[in-house]
Amino acid sequence: MTILRLARTELSRLTAGKLPRLAVAALILVPLLYGCLYLYANSDPYKRLDQIPAALVMQDAGATADDGTRLDAGRKVADKLKTSDAFQWHEVSAADAEAGVRDGKYTFSLTLPKDFSASLLSSGEFEPRQGQITVTTNDANNYLVGTIADRVVGEIRNSVASEVGTDAANKFLVGFGTIYSKTQEAANGATQLADGAGKARDGAHELASGQQQLLSGAQQLESGTGTAAQGASTLSGGLNTLQDKTKDLPAQTKKLADGAKQVADGNELVAQKGELVAGAAQGFVNDLDQLESDIAARLRADGLPEAQVQQVIVDLRKLRGPIDTANGKVQGVAGQLRTLANGAHQVSDGAHQLASATPALTAGIGQAADGGRQLASGTQQLHSGATQLRQGEEKAVTGTNELASGTSQLADGAAKLRDGLNSGLGQIPHPDKETRDATAKTIGDPVAIQTVGQANAGSYGAGLAPFFLSLAIWIGAFVLFLLVRPLSNRALAARQPAWRTAIAGWLPAAVLGLAQVVVLYAAVTLLVGIHPAHPVATLGFLLLTSLAFVAIVHALNALFGAVGKFLGLVILILQLISAGGTFPWQTLPDPLYPLHHVLPMGYVVDGLRHLLYGGTLSGLWVNLLVLLGYLVGGLAVATFAAHRRRVWTVSQLKPELVL
């Protein structure tokens, strides 16, 4: 008797009659009912989240920023939620939301508090506090919905944080632009100050040079008037000699008066130039006062705090200290030059008086003695005036030298101020609007997440398909042996070889198992809409899985009889918890690790994931070898059972337990 004949006999027994044929058809459909309907029911639950009722409590009163901008973040979030497909939102009061979640009317609630917008603006007031979003869940309604709600709230938080952070960063960068603009204005003012200080320095040096020339003239004048005084003192003692020698005196005194007049005019010109310089210096200082006031006004207008405005004024006053000192010296020198000019006029007047007196001297020799004394006295006064003129010129030279030194320090300080401001200006960020917006967006949302899927299941149902397909095939193999006999009694009684009896008992169930897989695969791909990346290979892998699972269940039933059915259920339970069909198998407790590595369903799940989702197939051979090993091992165990059952026992003829 051949294997095929034995198998055909068993199949004929199973299909003899209407009810047996219906039973066989039901056995074929068992995996379909379990696997296909479950996958259909859970194909994509996320697409129907809008059917889950959720309460939305919007209490946010909004807030106004310092610049007058109005923020209604709570209303924006509420409107965005209600227009999304994430849950069926109902905007209700806090009391209704609490009661609804407690009673199950709403699965969960989300509350936006009254100070939500104000909290988001608090960082700009240096009193930072977080905007709180309260989620109220009730696991009695549904545990997983609460988990999904936490994810939705997390996305809301990230969105709000990005928007608020971008706005704050944009204002921060605009502030940099304002600082840059005002610093540029200060740098331009410092450049003008440096130019003016340079001109003042050049003028002071020219003034110092002119004063040195005046000093030289005053020294010559002093020497000349000293000689005149000595001659006048001897005049009264030698009137006779003087009469002969004074005939040219009117012309000489006229020249002396003209020279004194030139000196007086020169000193007057010097005094006027000194006053002009003093006026220019004082005007420069006055301009600095006005510049200081203008800078302070601009800083206040730009919103700079008063303390910082006063600090800027103090720094500017420190910079202009040398200018004020130099201006004081210039004013003093100008006064001294005016005194010198007035003295020179007195000398000029005396010289003219002398020139007027000399004709009278020649007219009357009798009055010569008196005129000589007057001349001696006048020339002595002239010498004193010349001495005063020389001393004034020395002071003027000293003052103009100090003025030149001060204006040089002023020019150096102004140049350093100009260079420092220009250098600092280059270090202040000054992005354009496009760059500023991009930078603000990056600061507000610095991390971008890019998800790259090497293999993508596509839906929740497709993600569970490997687990439930393998589970359905095991259940299908299990129920087959509710009707199929694992070993043919006829073959055992006929003393057929054990291997032939074992294979003949496995083959009918294997054929029915293949039919189960074909029906299940067709329904999952055509009706449920799960499309494998490798359709032919997936079907072949499922067929091999069915052959191996049938071999395992066949061996259990052949070796242990009714107890084998119970062992099939136990192994099913062990595979449910260790296959890693839902959570990764690495999350199992350590004592369960060996179950994953030993039992076949974990390898089936792993192989199906790669075949369904388009993952790499380089490791598929391991899964194939394991299934082939279980197939061969199952047939070997069934052969051993057939060999042992060739000897009939009382328990075989009258079993204690029948399932």
TrEMBL record:
Record membrane topology: Multi-pass membrane protein
Keyword Transmembrane: yes
Transmembrane residue ranges: 21-41, 464-484, 505-530, 536-559, 566-585, 620-642
Keywords recorded for this protein, A-Z: Membrane, Transmembrane, Transmembrane helix
Recorded coiled-coil stretches: none
Major place of residence: membrane
Molecular function via GO: ABC-type transporter activity
Domain ABC-2 type transporter transmembrane, first and last residues per copy: 27-151, 447-638
Locations listed in the record: Membrane
Record flagged with keyword Amino-acid biosynthesis: no
InterPro entries for this protein: ABC2_TM (IPR013525), Phage_infect_YhgE_C (IPR017501), Phage_infect_YhgE_N (IPR017500), Serralysin-like_metalloprot_C (IPR011049), T7SS_ABC-Transporter (IPR051328), xxxLxxG_rpt (IPR023908)
CC terms in the record's Gene Ontology section: membrane
Cross-referenced Pfam families: ABC2_membrane_3
PANTHER family reported in the protein's UniProt record: PHAGE INFECTION PROTEIN, TRANSPORT PERMEASE YVFS-RELATED
Protein name per its UniProtKB record: Putative membrane protein
Source species of the chain: Labedaea rhizosphaerae
